[in-house]
């Protein structure tokens, strides 16, 4: 057997193994969905000193997985999580909201789920961001009531209360109020990305593709 033939056989074997792994993964995921088991795992992440629960990815259209997450972290329930970084033990917090957000874009759209705690609600406000985007965007102000987008002169060009805000978070933020849409590029103030506030206080609707 020539060296070239040996290399080709080695590559073919590698491709076959990768294909088998992919098939096993797909079958396993389908079995978990069929059995009503989560296909995601949950862990604690931090935004500054604010803890929140974050899931691994799930398929965008998998309503059953979203329901399982909400059942595991129902609004109003207690959750025992590790103590603050640098401290020992655990602490009990209260779930105030569960949200979805986009994790991966076309052609394999994936979403993630988050659960937030009442003890940290609205602690991020007020916040002001320098930003760019459509409609002469120069900055964004966020407070407990909602978002205000301003131009370079400081004039308001778009706003929405949190209760009416829907969003899609792809390579930029698409924000929609009751009547109009605006695009915002990534922006960070005091270490808190605008995207994180929008995920926490807005409502996800896929608008990127």
List keywords for this structure.
globular; 16 strands; 6-stranded antiparallel beta sheet; alpha+beta; 4-stranded antiparallel beta sheet
Condensed summary:
The protein is built from three helices and 16 strands. The chain has helices at residues 3-34, 63-72, 194-201; strands at residues 42-47, 50-55, 58-59, 78-82, 90-104, 110-117, 127-130, 139-142, 146-150, 156-161, 166-169, 173-176, 181-184, 188-189, 192-193, 203-204. Strands 1, 2, 3, 4, 5 and 6 form a six-stranded antiparallel sheet that branches. A four-stranded antiparallel sheet has the order 7-8-9-10, covered by helices on one side. Strands 13-12-11-16 form a four-stranded mixed sheet, with helices on one face.
Describe the structure.
With 209 residues, the chain is of the alpha+beta class. 24% of the residues lie in helices and 38% in strands. It is built from three helices and 16 strands. The chain has helices spanning 3-34, 63-72, 194-201; strands at 42-47, 50-55, 58-59, 78-82, 90-104, 110-117, 127-130, 139-142, 146-150, 156-161, 166-169, 173-176, 181-184, 188-189, 192-193, 203-204. The strands form four sheets. Strands 1, 2, 3, 4, 5 and 6 form a six-stranded antiparallel beta sheet that branches. Strand 7 (127-130) and strand 8 form a beta hairpin. The longest helix has 32 residues, at 3-34. The protein is globular. The N and C termini lie far apart (50 Å). 23% of the residues are buried. The model is unreliable at 7-35 (pLDDT under 50).
